[in-house]
Amino acid sequence: xxxxxxxxxxxxxxxxxxxxxxxxxxxxxxxxxxxxxxxxxxxxxxxxxxxxxxxxxxxxxxxxxxxxxxxxxxxxxxxxxxxxxxxxxxxxxxxxxxxxxxxxxxxxxxxxxxxxxxxxxxxxxxxxxxxxxxxxxxxxxxxxxxxxxxxxxxxxxxxxxxxxxxxxxxxxxxxxxxxxxxxxxxxxxxxxxxxxxxxxxxxxxxxxxxxxxxxxxxxxxxxxxxxxxxxxxxxxxxxxxxxxxxxxxxxxxxxxxxxxxxxxxxxxxxxxxxxxxxxxxxxxxxxxxxxxxxxxxxxxxxxxxxxxxxxxxxxxxxxxxxxxxxxxxxxxxxxxxxxxxxxxxxxxxxxxxxxxxxx
Length: 359
Prior knowledge:
CATH topology: Cytosolic phospholipase A2 catalytic domain
Structural class: alpha/beta
Order of helices and strands: EHEHHHHEEHHEEHEHHEHH
Number of domains: 1
Number of strands: 8
Oligomer: single chain
CATH architecture: 3-Layer(aba) Sandwich
Largest sheet: 8 strands, mixed
Low-confidence stretches: 99-111
Helix content: 25-40%
Distance between the termini: 12 Å
């Protein structure tokens, strides 16, 4: 660091994966706990120690919670990482709750699996009327506009610009849109603060791992501008940072390398292929993004190439299903996150050291 005139931009990216968000949530909870232990600041919250957070689907919900502003103090986060995990542990069974008639055979062939009411009520309870532009740090939350046939990137920095009302939304609506997974929840119709409509589904249909999106968005931002980045930093932050100016931590929601037999699929129709395609699409995108980021960071000097981390926890005995909210599976998901922490404490502590170094 002695040869640098600026600090690095610290970026957190979290994949999609439904209730499996418990796993990255648990890992981030450890990072926050470690920060509190090292700094002695018992009120430290994870949103204050990254300069940008990106998320898709369940990762988008976590992003929204981490970056919610505290009404009492500018630049401070309202929620802790523990608060975020508890959203899933306490209310996961409400988010993925079927009404009586939805249990009937073949219902999901003709309708979404779950009503969106409970999710919307929960998001309103946690996120209120806070807008995207009020997030304490830049964020990138993904969705897909199926009416206009284009990817949608909700970036809080863009929403702060002059005339940004058309790109500014209530964050609860953004969280609802990014998690509108086809066949699970109905699509989301949301309005910007200027009342422009958007017709959206889950960003996981095209970018389940948003780390490369976070990199691209960060490249265009002037992080020295306090209107973009709140915080009391020891060193100046770089504008339009390159890879060498970034610490990028990308977290998956639990790898599920389920093998599909040739005979199982050789004559399969749509019904058999659909769940297989969704599984391959999600894991394939995450692997592709990781591949490109590894190649990018490999071009850097030795010291800088160590600042990209891909954390892909193992599900252990937890179910890979994105909607399995049984008490047993919630416990197994939490244990899978804790198991990763136990087995990789040294790496996670190293990340915390860098988060504090680049403050």
